Input
Amino acid sequence: MTRFRLRQFLACVVVTLGGVGSAHAALKNCDNLSDNPGDYKVVLDDFAFATPAAQANSELAALRETLQFNFTGQLDVLRASARQLDRNLQVPMRLVFCAGRQPSLDGSDFTAARAEQLSDERVVVEMWGKLDLSANAGGTPSPSARIGYVIPPVQHYVDEDDAPPVHVLAYPKTGAVGSIAELENLPELPAFALVGLGTKAAKANRYDLAVWAFTRAEAGIADAKLAGANPRLEALLAYVKRAACETRTSARKDPSYKGPLTLVPPQACGGVEL
Amino acid sequence: MKRSFALTLAYLMLCLVAVRAVAGVQSPCDDPLILPGPKVQVFIMPYEAQGRLTPRGHELATILQRHVLFAALKYPSIAIAELTGEPKLCAPDRIMSRVGARLNDGQAAIFLWGRLFEQGDSIRLQSTVAFTMHGSPDKLQWSLGTDTADDASATVPADPVLFAARQIPLDLLQALQPAYREARRFHKAPDASSTFFDLPDSPEARFGYEVLEVRDDWMHIRLIPGGDDGWVPAHALASADNLKGAFPELYFVDGLIGYHQLWGVGSRPGATNPRRMLELTRASFDRYLQQAAGRAESEARALAMILKGNATLRASGTAAWSTETLQQAQALYRDAQELAPTSTIASNFFLACSSALCARGACAGGPDQVHEQYLRAIARDPTSPELVANLDRFYGAALSGRIRLSTPADQIAEQRARTSRVQREMQ
Output
């Protein structure tokens, strides 16, 4: 993504943050998804204020700016990964901005049919968010943000018990870390994108790409755990390790595959720990 | 430490961050100054501001950048330019491409840029660093046999290094003022008690500096234009550890400058003592690693450790490395692997160096363990041609008897044939 397009997107974020989400509206389709059918895609939806009161709150506006700053940093990480991917493996990955699309916070809009459709359109992750005022322990409204991620290929191809496809996180996170900035960081975005990419590539028998993506995702999930682990993240990490192992096994069994994974000895994938 | 006259010409463009750039002012971003002499040139690009900066925010941003400038001047043969201009003219890709095309062979360029955002009582910064050596990739080769074609090799990729965002309290500015004042003073002698004159404090002010001599952390500098000269304490801003603690990439950049100074050190007559340079380089990377511990930038930390290993080898010159030097580098590469267990670069440096030690019968844990680690690294990243090529050469050294694997020779031959086929497949 060029800097110009990034600015366009940030301007778009600012504009759409001016709007208020409608809780029960049907999920708007994203028109750009059918473009570039061969490319893998990271879909970025609106970050909406939940209510007009939330929209008028100055603390939430400040939180939105912090979120925007850190989010831009993660886009840079993602862009760097995409460049590396395209250079080394000739695999294009692009960001798609879906203005006006506001999924429900719990991810319930992502039905099995929708997950299949998104996966078919090579969407590796979709991200959205909501800014709201929630009552704190003293009953005073306090600003909070929630960020949602769905990994369509995981939802479509993998049993939810094996790998949770939807992750909704509070922003900023709370926990004991060495740096406050760590709680504001968003390492999940590139990590989840790589999980989706690995899953999709494995299904297409692109073994090298899949293993590369799973390995990189593992590093990203480890970064995300710095700000506090949660069971869904742990489950996803276990899936990533297992999926990498199973992909290596599939590569070895595929007579048409002649790549570097043929050099690697067979490995049992139960309780895998490379 | 004393150096010959005019060893270094360092141009410091002390001017404003881009967010305050005034239209009509000549933009160095449009035409970055590249000097033919200095070995290392640092280009500090404008930090892109998200939203408005208060005067205190501006001041902190300016001090941050000047901090890099002064800290860097302890090294010889360096030029530093702080670039300004409209954002579209200062796009990193554009500048890197322009600079890269105009460097001479053997000259290195380091680029620092980022984003900043002020909110409440703090400023947030996210920095990115890239570096390049003109005319040769950042590649090391380890001998495994008699022919250079049999060497193992590892390359530092040219990809930019992204650091995690930092949060720096604005009240740090007050704490930094004494150090900053000291850095602007031009003394008559390398002595803090000697008379001095102050450089103008205006952020719009621009100066060129020629470093005439360095003596015990004092730099003898001539101003350009004008010709006034004086002594400036290179340690002045470096002592403001509060800032570097909050912004550890300053140490990383410091380390990078020393790292590139060491490049080809053995082939340059009269070059600065490589031991001293290595100490400075390793100390800077160590401080970065210490300050960035626990942050979500494992790849940058692993890279710092790899560069420490590379610096150790480069400092020992171009002749064959001693086994002890190789072991020191190997230990650093192993640390890099521990910092980023999934990093292919860390694995490749560790394995290439370990292979060379195995060829000398000096690899701890034995060649079988290194062999197993090769296969494990490829299992994690089957997309690295360099890793597969090194395994192929490792097998070659085993077949020639230089590396003693417990695997029977016919199996090694079979594995090597398979590896060679895979290599061809990857091309």
About this structure: Residues 50 and 204 of chain B are 21 Å apart (CA to CA).
